[in-house]
Specification:
270 residues, alpha+beta, Sortase, Chain: A, 8 strands, 23% strand, globular, Sortase_Class_E, transmembrane, Class E sortase
Length: 270
Amino acid sequence: MLCENPPVDEAVAVSRGAARTRARPRRRTSVAGVIGELLITAGVIVLLYVVWQLWVGDMIYGAERNATGAELSEQWQQEYQQQNPEAAPAPSATDEPAAPVTADPPVMAEPRDGERFAVMHIPRFGTDYAVPMAGGVTRARTLDPIGIGHYPGTMMPGQPGNFALAAHRTTWGKPFNRIADLHVGDAIVVETEAGWYTYRFRTLEYVKPSAVEVLLPVPQVKDVPAGTAYITMTSCSPMYAMTERIVAYGVFESFTPRSAGEPASLQAVT
């Protein structure tokens, strides 16, 4: 026959065990433990921020830059067609690209700080690469919120001399992230309201941050008047550091007015 109540000895043992459990002192939280937990939490937050800034955020910012550039291109095309209703419609991807026009490209006024004036297309970086360009090279006004900045005092597209630009190689959409992937002869196309200025990539070099000679009318050559139109693209090097500058140079090839349609230089690289 089973007993409903435990034996006396067993009940006493259980009672004593419960008493010991109740009497066990509570673990005290030390200051060092609290600080350690806070440091771990802070480390996780910093790590998540780095992941966001270097990868997730870059993808979002890059897509936003390209979308903004594409919208600006479309806006210019629509305005041109409204002002010229008898003009031929914009060519489709299957149409024959326009022949380049090299005589007397229009000269633009220098933009104000943060003022958008052009869109850069580099087929080597993808057919969707369309990054807005604005005056100035400050992070707060141009490089972070817009994309590519124009060094004040340097030439404008198509002008003899040095059309000098700067952009991030990492973070904030990293417009010049693949600058080291350019091949000799690659097209660097600057689209404005008037049309497309095509440059061809020539060479790449690494310099110290103090090497302002890259911004001279003839890059790296002092006291020589410019007879050629150059483009100079600068960014930080190596990746995620600022110890050097990577500089890409190109030479002006042609100007294609908007009335002629998109130039052949915008064709995708195979």
